[in-house]
Amino acid sequence: MPTLTKPSIYYPEYIVTNNDILNFIKKYHSNTSHMNQLEEMIYNTTIEKRHLFFPFDLVMNLGLFEERQALYEEVARKYSLLVAQKALDNSGLTKKDITMIITTSCTGFMMPSLTAHLINGLDLPENTIQLPIAQMGCVGGAYAINRAFEHCQLSPTNNVLIVALETSSLCFHREAGKLQDFISDSIFGDGAAGVVMRGDDVGEGLSVVKSKSIFLKNTESFIQYNITNNGFLFSLDKQVMYSVEMIRNQVNEFIQSELKHTDNIDFCISHTGGRRILDEVQRCLNLKPHILEKSRESLKIVGNTSSVSVIDVLSRHFGNVNHKDQGVLIAFGPGFTSEVMLGEWRV
Amino acid sequence: MPTLTKPSIYYPEYIVTNNDILNFIKKYHSNTSHMNQLEEMIYNTTIEKRHLFFPFDLVMNLGLFEERQALYEEVARKYSLLVAQKALDNSGLTKKDITMIITTSCTGFMMPSLTAHLINGLDLPENTIQLPIAQMGCVGGAYAINRAFEHCQLSPTNNVLIVALETSSLCFHREAGKLQDFISDSIFGDGAAGVVMRGDDVGEGLSVVKSKSIFLKNTESFIQYNITNNGFLFSLDKQVMYSVEMIRNQVNEFIQSELKHTDNIDFCISHTGGRRILDEVQRCLNLKPHILEKSRESLKIVGNTSSVSVIDVLSRHFGNVNHKDQGVLIAFGPGFTSEVMLGEWRV
Q1: Distance between CA A260 and CA B229 in Å, rounded?
Q2: What is the pLDDT of residues B132-178, one digit of tens each?
Q3: For A287, A298, B66, B310, which has the most beta carbons within 10 A of its beta carbon?
Q4: Can you name the residues that pair with A330 across neighbouring β-strands?
Q5: Which residues does residue B1 pair with via DSSP β-bridges, in sequence order?
Q6: What SS3 class is residue A125?
Q7: Which residues of chain A make contact with B119, given a CB cutoff of 8 A?
C-alpha cells in the first residue's frame, strides 16, 4: 500500500501573539463596535502564537497585489526547496525515484508554479508529472495526499513529493475591518511542509487504505476569497461551523466501510481549522478527547496554517503511534470540500 | 481504453482583427521604435481574427486586478457551465456518471474554483473529485487530458468532465509597451471548451493509448506571468522558439514506442501556439503538411486560445478521421512543460 513517510516542517522566525493582534485592532480600528467580543473570541481560539515569514508590522503595512506577490515568490522559492529536500531525505528515496510533484499553496500565485521551481531546484526527472494546486485552500494538504494516492495506485514504482507552503499573513489587510477579517488575522499562520508518498510498502509510515472526496453543494460562500487590488482577502461564513455536522454521515459511513466503527479509531489527523472545528470533528466522529491531541497541539503553537496544517499534524504522530494503528486523516476547505483518507501505521 | 468524446466549443461575440491591434498601437504607442517590424510580424502570425468576451476598447481600458477579476468571474461562471453541459450531452453519459471534474483556466483566479461552481451548476455527484488547474497555462488542455487518463486507468467506470476557459484578453495591458507585449496582444484570444473522457470504450472518439509529461529544465523564463497590480502580464522569451527542437528526441521516441515511426502518424492535434511553433512541430516531428491543417485552421480563425486551443483542434478532427487512425496530441506551456498523448480513433 502507498505510504506517507516522515514529513519535514518549517516555521519562520517572526512570531505574532494574540496581544499583537489586539494592539493592532486597538490602534487601527479603535472605532470597531466588536472590541469586547473580539478580545474574548481571540483568547478563545486556544492559539498561543503563530509564525510569520515577515514581521507583523511589515505585513500590516503592505499595499497592492504586486508587492505581496513579490514577497510570496521570494519565500515560496526558498522554503519550498528546503522542506522538499528534507522530505525526500526522510523518505529513503532519491530524486530519480520521484514520478510526481504536487505543490499546494493558496496564498500566492506563480506561473510557472512551484512545481517547475522544485523540478529545477531538486533536479527531479524530466518526466515528473506536475500537479500545482492553488485553489483548494485549507483542504490542500489532504487533497494532495489523496491525489498522490491515486497516482501511486497506478504503479508501486510511482512516488510523489508533496510540498505545502502558505504565506497566509500576506492575505492580511490593514484596512479590512469586518469581524471576520479580525478573526482571519487571529487564526492563520505561515509555514511550509514536505512529505513523500512511496508507492511501495517499504519503511515506517502511514499506509493509505482508501480515499474519498466529499463536496457540500451550494456552500461556495462558506470559505472564499474576495479578489481585491490588495490581493486575496479571506472570507468566512459563520455557517462553516455546521459543515462538519453536514458531512458527518458520509464520513462515518466511509470510516465504517473499512474500520467497522469509529470507536475503533486509533488516531485522527485533522486539519486544525479552529477550536470550534476541532470540537465539531470530535463530536461528529464520536472521538475520545486524546485522539485530537496532536491536532489541538498544532493549532495552539502555530495556528491554522491552511494546507500545511494536516501535514504538520501527521508529522506529530510519528513516534507516537503503534504498529497497525488504524484511523483517519481529514481536512476541510473551500467548495465546501472535505478530503478524507483511511490509513494504517507501519512502525 | 479511455476515450475522449466530442468536445463542445464556445467563442464569444466580440471580434478583434490585426487592424484593431495596429490601430491601438498607433494610437497609444506611436513612439514605439518597432512600428514597421510590428506590422510585418502581426500579419505574419497568419491569424485573421480572434474572439473576445468583452469589446477590445473596454479590455484596453481596464485597470487594476479587482476589476479584471470581477469580469473574469462573470464570464467564467456563465460559459464554463455552457460548454460543460454540452460536452456532457455529447458524451452519452449523465451527470451521475462523472467521477472527476477538471478545470483549466490560467487567465483569472477564483477560490472556490470553477470545479465547485460546476459541481453545483450541473448537480454532479457529491463525491466528484475536483482538479482545478490555474498554473499550467497553454499546456492546460493537454495536461487535463493526461490527468483524466490516469484517473480513468483506475477504473472503467471513471469518467472525467474537462472544462478549459480562458479570458486571455483580460491579461492585455494598455500601458504594456514592450515588443513582446504587442505580440501577446496580437496572438491570444478568448474561448471555452468542454470535453468528457469516458473510462470505458463505448462510442465514437479518440481513445488514449499512452501519456507523457516532458519538462525542460531551467527554462522557467520561456513562458511566465509577471504579477502586477493590473493582474497577470504574459511574458514570452524568444528562446521559446527553440523549445520544440529541445524536446524533439523525447517526443519522437515516445511516438515510436507505440507507432513505429512518425511517418505513420495519421493526425497531430497540436496546441496552436503561433505560426512558428506550428512550423517547428511540423519540422521536428517530420509531419506531412496536411497533418497540421486543423491546428493551422484553428490558429487562423480564433488565434491562440491558450488551454482551450488543443480541445478546439481535437474537436475539428471529429468527422475528419478514419477508424483506427493513430497519432498524437501535443501541447506546450510554462515550465517549460509539454504534455503528449498517443491515441487511436474509434469511428
Answers
A1: 53
A2: 999 999 999 999 999 999 999 999 999 999 999 999 999 999 888 88
A3: B310
A4: A270, A340
A5: none
A6: coil
A7: 215, 217, 335
Express as a percent the part of chain B with pLDDT over 70.
99
A248's grid cell: 458527518
Q: Is B31 exposed, middle or buried (0-12, 13-18, 19+ CB in 10 A)?
A: exposed
Whether the bond into B188 is cis, omega within 30 of 0: no
Closest CA–CA distance from residue B322 to any residue of chain A (Å):
31
Q: Is the CB of A151 less than 8 angstroms away from the CB of B151?
A: no
The 3-state DSSP class for residue A21 equals helix
Biggest alpha carbon–alpha carbon distance for chain A: 60
Q: Side chain identity at A25, as an amino acid letter?
A: I
Out of A146-160, A229-243, A246-260, give the one with best mean pLDDT.
A146-160
A308, A166 in Cβ contact below 8 A?
A: yes
**Residue A289 CB burial class (10 angstroms; 0-12, 13-18, ≥19):** exposed
* Whether the Cβ atoms of residue A223 and residue A336 lie closer than 8 Å to each other: yes
- A119 closest CB neighbour out of B136, B150, B215: B215
Q: Are B42 and B186 spatial neighbours (Cβ–Cβ below 8 Å)?
A: yes
Give the pLDDT confidence score for residue A30 in this predicted structure. Answer: 85
Task: Spell out which residues of chain B touch residue A216, defining contact as CB-CB under 8 Å.
Answer: 126
The residue behind cell 469581524 is A179
* The total number of residues written for chain A in this structure: 347
Return the residue matching grid coordinates 511501495.
A200
- Helix, strand, coil percentages for chain A (3-state, nearest 5): 45, 25, 30
pLDDT band per the 50, 70, 90 thresholds, residue A150? very high
Active site members of A: 138
What pLDDT does residue B168 have? 96
- How far does the CA of residue B26 sit from the closest CA of chain A (Å)? 29
Domains and CATH numbers, chain A: 3-198 (3.40.47.10), 205-346 (3.40.47.10)
Residue B319 distance to chain A (closest CA, Å): 32
| Average pLDDT in chain A | 95
Q: Residue type at B264? A: N
What are the CA-CA distances from residue B269 to residues A55, A167, A247, B54, B274 (Å)?
A: 50, 40, 42, 28, 14
Q: Is the peptide bond before A12 cis (omega within 30 degrees of 0)?
A: no
Q: At what angle do helices A35-44 and A18-28 cross, to 10 degrees?
A: 160
The kind and range of the H/E element at B238 are: none
Predicted TM-score of the model (pTM): 0.97
Over range A228-250, report the average pLDDT: 94
Among candidates B277, B282, B285, B268, which has minimal Cα distance to B306?
A: B277
Q: Which residues of chain A neighbour B111 with C-beta distances below 8 Å?
A: 106, 134-135, 137, 224-225, 232, 334
